[in-house]
Amino acid sequence: MKNKLFNIVSGAIAVIALCGCSDYLDRVPLDSNSDATNWSSVAAIETYSWNLYGDLSGFSYGSGWTRGQYHGEPLTDDYSTESFSQFTVSVPNSSSSWNGPYDNIRKANVMLARIDQVPGITDAAANHWRGVARFFRALWHFQLLKTYGDIVWVDKEINIASEEELTLPRLSRTEAADKIIEDLQFAVSNCYAPSAAGVNTVNSMVAAALLSRVALYEGSWEKYHGTAGGHANQFFEQAKNAAQTVINSGLYSINENYKTNYTSNDLSGNKEMILFKRYSFIGDKGTVTHAHSQFGWSDSSTPTWGLTKSAVENYTTADGLPIHMVDYDDKTMDGVFEGRDARLSATVFPEKILVTEHAYIEGILSTTGYWTYKFVPLDEYETRIKNTTWNGPSNNTDGPIFAYPEVLLNYAEACAELGNCTQADLDKSVNILRKNHGKIPALTVSGTSVSVNGTAITKAPGDPAENVLIQEIRRERRSELMADGFRHDDLYRWALGKNLDLAQNPDGYLGASRDIIIESAEADGIDAGTIDEKNYFVTIGGVQYKSPYEPGKNSRTWNDKYYLEPIPSNQLMLDPNIQQNPGW
Known about the structure:
By secondary structure, the chain is mainly α. The protein has a domain at about 1-190 and about 565-575: Serine Threonine Protein Phosphatase 5, Tetratricopeptide repeat (Alpha Horseshoe). It contains 21 helices and eleven strands. The chain has helices at about 40-55, 95-115, 125-150, 165, 175-190, 195, 205-225, 230-250, 260-265, 310-315, 335, 340-345, 380-385, 405-420, 425, 430-440, 470-480, 485-495, 515-525, 530-535, 570-575, and strands at about 60-65, 65, 80, 275, 305, 400-405, 445, 450, 455, 535-540, 545. The strands form five sheets. It has a three-stranded antiparallel β-sheet, with helices on one face. A two-stranded antiparallel ribbon has the order 1-2. A hairpin with a 2-residue loop joins β7 (about 445) and β8 (about 450). The chain is globular. The relative contact order is 0.13. Residues about 1-30 have low confidence and may be disordered.
């Protein structure tokens, strides 16, 4: 039974069929391999490595009906799910959040243990492939770290006959984070540059992008959760330096069309992409080959995950000023969408507020009224509906995994957290995003104060950021990465779980005002009484707002124990060295 600790799979070195020419999604093995024959050449290592890429689907759009990172976080204040989402309320017997990462860590460790068996391999090639394996080992340990805190660190192929190896103790999250960083620093230093690594594969820049993400996360966690024995500033420095490595490479730039990052059939020429998943649709009438359901979820009687009032109000005006500094009218279409950060209208459909009884195309509607159409190539509807790629799970737009905007945001936030963010730092990071994607003016910084075109930005009422600079960098991050799958992690690392409490933050689940919904419906000849009959509304500050759930029926109350998931009970029985997380 103890081999269940890491859910060890017997065929660890069998190569999984992936997809696509020179891209990792297109690789198809010609035959199965055994441990005795698989390590005969560098090409054999490369073939085995495709086995490590398969689970990256979850960091993009998913596969078929399985949701990936984007629209895959049910607990967030950015959008509301079609059915009520609750925190984990009891300790599970088992969990894929535990077993899945350890499966993938084992694959990486098998590869690491076999590289020296390849005859004639050069030092550079050996270190590149070690870097690739350590990249994936770090990635999955990071997933465990975010989920469980202290983790069992596994840096070798586990011997299932060894009682000692099957009952390893957990490392403190600080120790584990240092080891993850060490793996990624090795990958940055030893993986081939993008030009030598092969098209759309793990390389030194992909490793640096992940390093910036990991270090920023852990620095924030240690700072805002008060981790004993932590070294937050060391992590912030590592995040800044890793992001700087990507910036200094000169390989990436920000384009002027924000939406095409999410609605393109081919991202291979997009200078914002560091690593992406290539999807393809081959067939007719629902025959799916490496496709996803990202915008197909919208095209049904099930509501798409609509943006919340809180999310919509995060976007600045076209003048670059936060909503709390201007007269904001959320009771009319013009009041919400006119004169705003361009990313709002690229993310939320700006022409109609879509609720039950007010469908737009073939039943498209939204949980909050704000239809999240960021991933929808609406201008290609007629073409796509004819070849069935409009309806999930048959969609084939390519999906970002690591993209340059996140790296720029990581850099700016790390600089701000270190307390030494300069104008030059903003100009090469968030200001590029504001200019090209948001079409809004740049931020000017002086210490921790920020202004736009001479107007000083003030602290927003109730905003927990320690200063205006961090407040505005967080705002920029949220606007840029809206619905990209980062918000849940951001709230947790900033110790802002209370944002998910329905009573403490109703703006984080409610949607459009009744006034704007009725305006949009009546413009299409729909009676207000019908809208009221079919939808729920909650009154906040004298204004009624769309509720995705029946008022009074569901509740979600925050408890700090939710920052970490409980260790599955079967793991506690299998390994006496593992203790349960606090509060569970």
